[in-house]
Automatic annotation (TrEMBL), chain A:
<dbReference type="InterPro" id="IPR035906">
    <property type="entry name" value="MetI-like_sf"/>
</dbReference>
<feature type="transmembrane region" description="Helical">
    <location>
        <begin position="281"/>
        <end position="301"/>
    </location>
</feature>
<feature type="transmembrane region" description="Helical">
    <location>
        <begin position="232"/>
        <end position="253"/>
    </location>
</feature>
<comment type="similarity">
    <text>Belongs to the binding-protein-dependent transport system permease family.</text>
</comment>
<dbReference type="GO" id="GO:0005886">
    <property type="term" value="C:plasma membrane"/>
</dbReference>
<keyword id="KW-1003">Cell membrane</keyword>
<dbReference type="InterPro" id="IPR051393">
    <property type="entry name" value="ABC_transporter_permease"/>
</dbReference>
<keyword id="KW-1133">Transmembrane helix</keyword>
<dbReference type="GO" id="GO:0055085">
    <property type="term" value="P:transmembrane transport"/>
</dbReference>
TrEMBL record, chain B:
<keyword id="KW-0472">Membrane</keyword>
<keyword id="KW-1133">Transmembrane helix</keyword>
<keyword id="KW-1003">Cell membrane</keyword>
<feature type="transmembrane region" description="Helical">
    <location>
        <begin position="174"/>
        <end position="197"/>
    </location>
</feature>
<feature type="region of interest" description="Disordered">
    <location>
        <begin position="1"/>
        <end position="30"/>
    </location>
</feature>
<dbReference type="InterPro" id="IPR035906">
    <property type="entry name" value="MetI-like_sf"/>
</dbReference>
<dbReference type="GO" id="GO:0005886">
    <property type="term" value="C:plasma membrane"/>
</dbReference>
<dbReference type="InterPro" id="IPR000515">
    <property type="entry name" value="MetI-like"/>
</dbReference>
<feature type="transmembrane region" description="Helical">
    <location>
        <begin position="99"/>
        <end position="123"/>
    </location>
</feature>
Length: 313, 317
């Protein structure tokens, strides 16, 4: 049974590991090396400058903006998406008719699930272009047009959506409009996820609660939600990554890909701009390393918070 | 991250039939309340459903209008007539024949090799003891958290240098992009299939080896077929992920001087809307969006159960 094992293991691992090291790990490692140079990118001269790039990075106004915008998305995207998804999953499963607060769908719950899931299968780019048409800054846009019809928006002063850098609740308005798209796109997916988790909760638990006189709402907060903790944690971790991934929307929709007036910069847009517009490859790599550290810290926090004994049932 | 008890194969999402249990003793007491709750649920669900469907429907409907009609009456959901010429114009202006062909080649190759190499690596890492096993596994896991944008500069430069030595591994080459897709999809595929292969019974593997089949025959003839539910989940995940991938092509598929552009669908859409394309050709843009959208939605509606279970199953692993 042992003969040829070493050869077999090597032959199966060789190609995947080679590809992965060459196209994924090596670039990450190179980031660190390049970040210590003043490499201009289009020339081949690289001088070692030590930590100069990192000193510059700490003082860089643009990076600070990108950082706070990422923090904004990291908080709001998961909070709004999970809250809405939980609400809809609850309405879908427990809002149905029937005396017990057990798990049964409302009429047509299958159709709702199919429809709510639509944005998940469409590419982010397609979604962004579609919302660009919805967000047009004149009466041609779907939202402006609708809001003008019902008189909420003055036709002389249409909403500017993603071209509006003015602050709303202390955060540039453009970010709120991008947030709306992210929540619009993600809610259906997490609703399906939570709904499946709710259906795997044994019915006798609900029956016992109902016998004890618990109302629907009470059952939800005291029983369903605690038992969904695992799913919610997973959702939170994934939505955290999605929040860092808002670059697709920024790239397609905002003026000068991070504008207006840098009001929608995220880490990725700053890296791209620094590297490919300003041609400062060395500095862009330093920003990339900072993004990496930020992401790893985030992952560590998430692992720490979500680790907890699971409830077996 | 494996914090749930739901294995992917059982991530069914269908509606559970209502249990008929012990009669409906509580019916008289709460039926009015039930109607209210049910109505309330439908109201909320319908509003959100409309928010999802109406924008999509608006795009499809606008794609049948003339430009004049779009300007005059942008909100109307019913076009004056069916202007199919929008589609033929959008198809030829957007080079959709080439785009779909490019996408099928790249995603087809990418997903096939991701699945093959990913399950090979996952299988060996999950079921064979050898020095370095854990290290390789954790290296694959490391790629799960870090974003692709981080690697932009070195990847761009590396592909540039590679292209000077081996032309088909340089910028704007199918083979290069397929390999890059595979490399970037491996982390999740290995992670997912690893936990799947671990759950397969080892008695079958032992029986196979006793019967004298080689390690690779055992893998391709016995273990891989047994892992089919997992392969379907992660396969759907990879198809959707690679079909929608936009950043890597935008970074790496820039044509060198005089070359034809080879753009998969997401990149082609960006080119059309951001760069040049349908400037002031609104009906053409809507027609282009519709053509990019409807095939995906159609496939999703046909395979809805598998897609929903596959996507939700793969993240709860």
């Amino acid at each position: 049974m042992r003969h040829g094992k070493a050869r077999f293991v090597t032959s199966f691992l060789f190609l995947p590991v080679l590809l992965y090291v060459f196209y994924v790990l090596w670039p990450y490692a190179q980031d660190i090396g390049y970040s210590l140079t003043n490499w201009g990118g289009y020339s081949d001269t690289q001088e070692f400058v030590g930590l100069d790039n990192y000193v510059r990075l700490v003082k860089d106004e643009l990076i600070r903006k990108a950082f706070w915008h990422s923090v904004f998305f990291l908080v709001t995207v998961p909070v709004f998406t999970i809250a809405l998804a939980l609400l809809f999953a609850f309405l879908l499963n427990v809002g149905g008719r029937g005396s017990r607060a057990g798990v049964r769908g409302v009429w047509g719950s299958h159709v709702y699930k199919v429809v709510f899931f639509f944005p998940q299968v469409l590419s982010l780019v397609l979604v962004a272009i579609m919302w660009q048409a919805i967000y047009r800054g004149d009466e041609q846009g779907l939202l402006n047009g609708l809001l003008m019809k019902i008189g909420l928006v003055d036709p002389e002063k249409p909403l500017q959506f993603v071209a509006d850098p003015s602050p709303f609740l202390g955060v540039p308005t453009v970010l709120w409009w991008l947030l709306l798209i992210a929540v619009w796109g993600g809610t259906g997916f997490y609703m399906v996820l939570f709904s499946a988790a709710m259906q795997s909760i044994p019915k006798d638990i609900f029956e016992a609660a109902t016998l004890d006189g618990a109302t629907r709402v009470k059952t939800f907060f005291r029983i369903t939600l605690p038992l969904l903790r695992d799913s919610v944690s997973v959702a939170w971790v994934y939505l955290g990554f999605i929040a860092l991934d808002m670059y697709a929307l920024v790239y397609v929709m905002t003026p000068s890909q991070g504008g207006p007036d840098h009001a929608s910069e995220v880490f990725a847009s700053v890296i791209n701009f620094t590297a490919f517009n300003k041609g400062q490859f060395g500095y862009a790599c330093a920003i990339a390393v900072a993004l990496g550290i930020f992401t790893l810290l985030l992952a560590a926090v998430q692992l720490r918070v979500t680790r907890r004994e699971r409830i077996e049932y | 991250m494996s914090t749930t008890t739901t294995p992917p194969s059982t991530g069914t999402v269908g509606v559970q039939p209502a249990p008929s249990g012990r009669g409906r003793s509580g019916k008289q007491g709460s039926s009015v309340g039930d109607v209210a709750v049910s109505g309330f649920s439908h109201l909320f669900l319908l509003v959100w459903g409309a928010m999802v469907v109406l924008p999509l429907l608006w795009v499809v409907m606008s794609s049948f209008k003339t430009d004049a009609e779009i300007i005059k009456n942008p909100l109307s959901m019913i076009p004056d007539g069916l202007h199919w010429d929008n589609f033929s114009r959008a198809w030829s202006n957007g080079h959709f024949t080439d785009v779909f062909l490019d996408t099928v080649i790249i995603v087809g190759g990418g997903v096939f090799f991701t699945m093959l190499l990913g399950s090979m690596a996952a299988y060996v890492l999950a079921r064979y003891e050898f020095p370095g096993n854990r290290i390789i596994y954790y290296l694959f896991l490391a790629g799960l958290t870090l974003p692709v944008y981080m690697a932009a500069v070195p990847l761009y430069k590396g592909i540039d240098n590679m292209g000077r030595i081996v032309p088909f591994l340089g910028h704007n080459q199918y083979v290069m992009l397929i390999l890059v897709y595979v490399a970037w999809s491996l982390s999740f595929t290995v992670f997912f299939m690893h936990s799947f292969f671990r759950t397969l019974p080892s008695t079958v593997a032992e029986a196979g080896l006793v019967d004298g089949c080689s390690h690779s025959t055992l893998f391709f003839r016995v273990m891989l077929p047994m892992a089919k539910p997992g392969l379907i989940s992660i396969g759907i995940f990879n198809v959707i992920g690679q079909w929608n991938q936009w950043y890597l092509p935008v970074l790496l598929m820039q044509p060198q001087s005089g070359e034809d552009k080879k753009a998969p669908i997401a990149q082609a859409l960006i080119d059309l809307s951001v760069n040049q394309g349908y400037r002031s050709d609104w009906s053409g843009m809507f027609a282009g969006l519709t053509m990019a959208m409807l095939p995906v939605l159609a496939v999703y509606i046909i395979f809805q159960r598998q897609v929903q279970a596959g996507l939700t199953g793969s993240i709860t692993k």
